[in-house]
From TrEMBL, chain A:
The keyword Transmembrane helix applies. Keywords: Membrane, Transmembrane, Transmembrane helix. This is ABC transporter permease. It comes from the Bacteria. It comes from Nonomuraea turkmeniaca. The chain crosses the membrane at residues 18-42, 62-84, 105-127, 147-170, 177-195, 232-253.
Length: 258, 243
């Protein structure tokens, strides 16, 4: 408990935490801007074109903002200690070592669980408010029907936060961990998209971006990834993205010289 | 507190093919300052990391109060250490930095304020550490080591970056901590300063023990502690790149 209090203070006592959380929540403002722009375009389009106008679910597009930001927060929670050398002091005062990582994971995961839904649901509500029944009623679906996918998208945010933490601890390098996360989001999906079938769809189904819709069971055929996993397997896959790096880090930090 | 000692038994550490600490055995006793000397790269910092359980020895062992450091549950109450004054997050205030450390060992915020007072940083307690001079960071590191009021203290070059005022302050602090019966291991390259501060001296070179003696014995045999150091380490001066 005392270690949890210490790690909580570590997170609270530096400005970059607030900056990163603010940036994560800026997804809502981006959503507001994009929705207003789309509404303007829709309203100025000739009436006969309007029925064919489509819009992507903005909260599912913009979730990438809190994903990356919280991934960076998780990374920095670990690498800022390695870069400064503070990790030596931290591990000296807690020689068992692993409680430091579990405390960090608890706090970073908790922040992700707050920030993720705030960003996703916030984006959803401002989009719904601004777009109304435009775009063939894309945002007039009952909120309760949209709730599962909104929740599943929100959950990817703490997953990214913990993935960042785990990679930060394993690689001990801010650049390395953030590059890995960015690669996972941007580069690997492009490579996988260009693989021959069936590998493109098989591997694509495992990408984080593909998991929320597989978890809710409304995997659509138009997904750029793939949708081969049943909901439970997709949920397990999402959990593994967070758990495996953190568990590997806990295992390694107990053995590694610092 | 009189049985509080650091004991090294045939401590050895390899990093890949490099032998950093080689079959090193010595004891550090309570009640006086023990100076820890050796050329750059001799293995002083590695030895301190091995004592603190940060690095695992290849063979041999280091004991603090008769136990391996890694088995201590609230170590700040037994051992305080300053390895690298720069190892702080520049964005955190001095007070929060210390409080983060204190919390892990159930040390109170009152004690944090006391430690800041003791090292003369009360006035800048709420300032971000990034703006501190090296001397101020050394004082902050010393405050961190003192937080748990430990019987064993280790300082790796704490005098670096301090002004003459600070150098004298460290000297007086070390001696008064030793006079309270604590065990103090202090590394430094400033021989004149060490001659004034330490009573016993351990000299290592290339990871091996070169001499374990008292300042009085060394200055009786040689013109000064500096001359003693130069003579004893003449064969051990080397730099990493020469390997």
């Amino acid at each position: 408990m005392s270690i949890l209090a210490s790690e909580w203070l570590k997170v609270r006592s530096i400005r970059s935490t607030y900056l990163i959380i603010g940036l994560s929540l800026s997804a809502v403002l981006l959503g507001l801007g994009l929705a207003a722009m789309a509404a303007g375009m829709y309203d100025s389009a000739p009436p006969d074109k309007r029925p064919n106008a489509r819009i992507a679910e903005l909260e599912e597009v913009l979730v990438i903002v809190p994903q990356l930001c919280m991934g960076i927060l998780g990374t920095l929670a670990m690498t800022s200690e390695y870069v400064t050398g503070l990790i030596r002091t931290s591990l000296t005062v807690v020689p068992r070592r692993w409680p430091i990582l579990t405390a960090k994971a608890t706090i970073i995961g908790f922040l992700g669980l707050i920030v993720g839904p705030a960003a996703v649901f916030g984006t959803y509500f401002v989009s719904r408010w601004i777009l109304g029944d435009r775009f063939s009623g894309a945002y007039t679906t009952e909120f309760l029907d949209r709730l599962p996918i909104l929740a599943a998208s929100s959950l990817t945010v703490p997953v990214f936060a913990l993935l960042g933490l785990g990679l930060g601890a394993l690689l001990r390098s801010t650049a390395g961990a953030i590059a890995t996360i960015a690669g996972l989001v941007y580069v690997i999906p492009i490579i996988i998209g260009n693989l021959p079938e069936p590998w493109s769809e098989r591997l694509g189904s495992l990408m984080i971006g593909a998991l929320p819709r597989q978890i809710t069971g409304d995997g659509n055929a138009s997904s750029v990834f793939g949708s081969l996993l049943p909901p439970a397997a997709a949920g397990a896959c999402l959990a593994a993205y967070a758990a495996l790096p953190v568990l590997a880090a806990i295992w390694l930090v107990r053995r590694r010289d610092v | 507190m009189l049985d509080a000692v650091i004991e090294l038994h045939q401590l050895t550490k390899h990093y890949g093919g490099t032998l950093a600490v080689d079959d090193l055995s010595f004891k550090v006793e309570p009640g006086h300052v023990t100076g820890f000397l050796g050329p750059n790269g001799a293995g002083k910092s590695t030895t301190m990391r091995l004592i603190l359980g940060l690095d695992a020895p290849t063979s041999g062992q280091a004991l603090v109060n008769g136990r391996r450091y890694a088995t201590l549950s609230r170590p700040m109450h037994e051992v305080g250490a300053l390895l690298d004054a720069g190892a702080v997050h520049g964005g955190r205030s001095a007070y929060n930095h210390l409080l983060c450390l204190a919390r892990t060992n159930d040390i109170s915020a009152t004690r944090v304020a006391e430690a800041l007072e003791q090292v003369g940083l009360s006035g800048v307690a709420r300032k971000r550490v990034g703006g501190f001079s090296l001397g101020m960071k050394q004082r902050l590191g010393i405050a961190a080591a003192l937080l748990g009021d430990p019987g064993v203290l280790m300082f790796d070059e704490p005098v670096n970056g301090l002004d003459p005022d600070g150098v004298r302050w460290i000297r007086d602090l070390m001696r008064s901590l030793a006079a309270e019966g604590r065990t103090i291991l202090l590394s430094s390259h400033l021989m004149s300063e060490m001659a004034l501060t330490a009573e016993r001296i351990v000299i290592i070179g290339r990871g091996k023990l070169i001499a374990e003696s008292t300042v009085a014995e060394l200055t009786a045999r040689y013109p000064s502690l500096e001359d003693a150091y130069m003579a004893l380490t003449a064969d051990s001066v080397q730099y990493g790149a020469a390997r």
